[in-house]
Amino acid sequence: MDKELVIVLDFGGQYNQLIARRVREFNVYCEVLPYNTDIEVIKEKAPKGIIFTGGANSVYEPDAPSCDPKIFELGIPILGICYGCQLMSHLNGGKVGKAPKREYGKTEIEVDSSSKLFENVTRNTTCLMSHTDYIETVAPGFRVIAKSESCPVAAIENPEKNLYGVQFHPEVEHTPEGVLMLKNFLFKICGCTGDWTMSSFVDMSVRYLKEKIGDKKVLCALSGGVDSSVSAVLVSKAVGKQLTCIFVDHGLLRKNEADEVEEVFTKKFDVNFIRVNAQQRFYDKLAGVTDPESKRKIIGEEFIRVFEEEAKKIGKVDYLVQGTIYPDVIESGLGKSAVIKSHHNVGGLPDYVDFKEIIEPLRDLFKDEVRRVGLELGMPEHLVYRQPFPGPGLAVRIIGEVTPEKVKILQEADYIYREEIAKAGLDRKISQYFAVLTNLRSVGVMGDERTYDYTVALRAVTTTDFMTAEYVEIPWEVLGRISRKIVNEVKHVNRICYDITGKPPATIEWE
Ligand SMILES: Nc1ncnc2c1ncn2[C@@H]1O[C@H](COP(=O)(O)OP(=O)(O)OP(=O)(O)O)[C@@H](O)[C@H]1O
Ligand SMILES: O=c1[nH]c(=O)c2[nH+]cn([C@@H]3O[C@H](COP(=O)(O)O)[C@@H](O)[C@H]3O)c2[nH]1
Ligand SMILES: NC(=O)CC[C@H](N)C(=O)O
Ligand SMILES: [Mg+2]
């Protein structure tokens, strides 16, 4: 590859892609690779720099993730962050142990701005610390370039070998000058020039897809959502009509959604498009299932079975394209990260899949980056800015068992909610909003009669990357209107609640 590359070596932890994203924000292409990636693979990619991420382990534990110490001899600049910094010390002969005092949260540090890493950084600056271990003895050849009250070694450098490490997290917003430190690392230490853009991402992906797919046939799992639509357009740019898009109506879509998706993709785009009506088989498989992870896995597997069947009808199909994006990957528990929920298209994949390979061209990107790719590809704005809708659909918004009757109730309630939000002019201000059918029934009174019906919860959040989110303060008056309309018009709903939790501690979807 002819472009500048920085590799982020992933040692676990939820926010690692943020580092990659910060690097890309400086127009330097960046890839995240697992910590145990073979050093030969790294050498072959010839990165301008390498960043070691944080991680939950302690370097002195027996099976803590590690890397080949030869990496420090490649002459490639390395920045270790938190666990990564501790590992760099440990592998170079320093000593890491449990700190007498753990540090968590915003912390004042004093930096030595004669280090290239801290050029133009304020001497006394704030950073986010999150560690229980610390560097007790600095490795030979290294010197200390920052300290805090409880952490005598808050940053280290070995400028001869271009090795740098920080105990804190420069990638998060709680470290206001962290971006500047990363910039120093990229431009002053690695010598990057920052010539990578979204249009180069498109060119690079198209070239890669052309080469990979050759003259073979490929299916794209198309939901009509942003990620798969952008993937489909990208693949179609690369291999044209060798691509067939498969859209599955699993009976868990929003009201009218299936017809709308079909309309757009048959009328507005020049692609092969197949709609599969598979409602009943999904309902059958989900009957009696209440556990959220089981529901997700069943749906993930059934999706693949449908794709396999459709592939057989077309002839030999080698590849399946999915619109997986980074948050889907990380929350499904990739490598050393914890499983938050199995996104159907990642953790929900069955072990055996009848395709030679699954291609995920957007796997490394965040949602807002995917949207920029969509715009770059000339896709219409209303498609690019659609709110996301999860693959398992209403199944993860119906708490407990999914039945066709419950789907119908939720579709109607959700439709009213979305319509009223749009009428109130709030749709562009909210990143994602939807109704949830709780498993709770309660007593109400309507027309002098007792009712015993469902509670619907309403959710609305703002976020840029969907990794964290805040709930939205929808005006009471709008909420009141929505509540009255749903209870009046949707049978079997007699109570409405509004969800006021952020992510974390909640997630955006309820299951
Ligand atoms: N109904 C469906 N039919 C076919 N493929 C689907 C369907 N739902 C989801 N998928 C596949 O699973 C992937 C992940 O779904 P996800 O909802 O994250 O992405 P999306 O629907 O493309 O975009 P968005 O996040 O905007 O909804 C999709 O990109 C697509 O490949
Ligand atoms: O394709 C998907 N398959 C899934 O299984 C899935 N689960 C959640 N989501 C969407 O991802 C974003 C983050 O959701 P959570 O905060 O609920 O994890 C939100 O935008 C969710 O709607 C999914 N998308
Ligand atoms: N956030 C981290 O990387 C933590 C690293 C290490 N486990 C510590 O607690 O010090
Ligand atoms: Mg979707």
Automatic annotation (TrEMBL):
CDD domains: GATase1_GMP_Synthase (cd01742), GMP_synthase_C (cd01997). Catalyzes the synthesis of GMP from XMP. GO terms for cellular component: cytosol. Residues 196-386 form the GMPS ATP-PPase domain. It catalyses: XMP + L-glutamine + ATP + H2O = GMP + L-glutamate + AMP + diphosphate + 2 H(+). Its EC number is 6.3.5.2. It holds the Pfam family GMP_synt_C. ATP binds at S223, G224, G225, V226, D227, S228, S229. It is an enzyme of class 6 (ligase). Homodimer. This is GMP synthase [glutamine-hydrolyzing]. InterPro entries: Class_I_gatase-like, GATASE, GMP_synth_C, GMP_synth_GATase, GMP_synthase, GMPS_ATP_PPase_dom, Rossmann-like_a/b/a_fold. GO terms for molecular function: ATP binding; GMP synthase activity. Keywords: ATP-binding, Glutamine amidotransferase, GMP biosynthesis, Ligase, Nucleotide-binding, Purine biosynthesis. Pathway: Purine metabolism; GMP biosynthesis; GMP from XMP (L-Gln route): step 1/1. Gene3D superfamilies: 3.30.300.10, 3.40.50.880, HUPs. The active site is at C82, H169, E171.
